[in-house]
């Protein structure tokens, strides 16, 4: 295997999801860093300019009518963090910060990572193959259950994979060419949120500070506000995680980096960050301009929809190379920047690290290889539909 092989597979992943849009966005970004696209908005494709927009929370907001936050308000209510701006948003982030410390996220992820390890060992020791995509969906579902405040063996609790599928059904309502949700789509999203929120409401009412909903109640949030925040975390984080982790593992396996990390894990952080940079699990971010001005010399009018092409901004910096430092203008750009930098980043990184540790531990005991893979087609977030690992002969 080689870097060229890894990069060919990544291109297949992107083209499978967006066979026309991906090459169009990449080609437009190569022509001009900022471009007005009739009917869609202003496309920004250079990392420095993308970061500038994200840092300017006064002129470019997330809760506008065609920005990503505004899309979710009919589904999760007006106070779900992802659709807030200004002083109210800053205050809520401050209150939530203690819920995403290293100790807090480790507590959330640990039971799911134990289950992941058991699944990987069972499937590789028995049938000899394990579908990593399916495993990561179960991991994400396990984390969702912890966020909902639902213990593993609660009667009537949805299985982990069904919890993931429910969250995914909400996030899949979004499309780049769809500035707002239709009433039918919003109703579908609210129905899914209510299924998720049912057990979380019980945990909120119990007020147990050991649960995530109980902690939100302790912070003084109303029940509806707490449900909106929990639903937003479920929607925004799970699908990108399930997209990224199998792609991370494929990149590291295709380039021979798995063997290097088994021998020396000090390079894990650089390998994960470069994989995030190269795969860009959040390929596009949306903002609304609320004041006239310009971006990179292009005139922007109040009300313009701003399309931030993180996919071009990050990938245009070069091929996959964990040994090369990521330029400052692109560092962690896939998690955003400024007031809306992803508050759940520590949780996502804990899930990523836990999965990679399980696979490295297994490889050290008995090496595995990628036996088969299938790219997902016509999906919002590019990824693999299946990535099977098998014991090496």
Automatic annotation (TrEMBL):
Signal peptide: none annotated. Pfam families: p450 (PF00067). It comes from the Bacteria. Keywords: Heme, Iron, Metal-binding, Monooxygenase, Oxidoreductase. Belongs to the cytochrome P450 family. Gene3D superfamilies: Cytochrome P450. This is Cytochrome P450. Its cofactor is heme. It comes from Paenarthrobacter ureafaciens. GO terms for molecular function: heme binding; iron ion binding; monooxygenase activity; oxidoreductase activity, acting on paired donors, with incorporation or reduction of molecular oxygen.
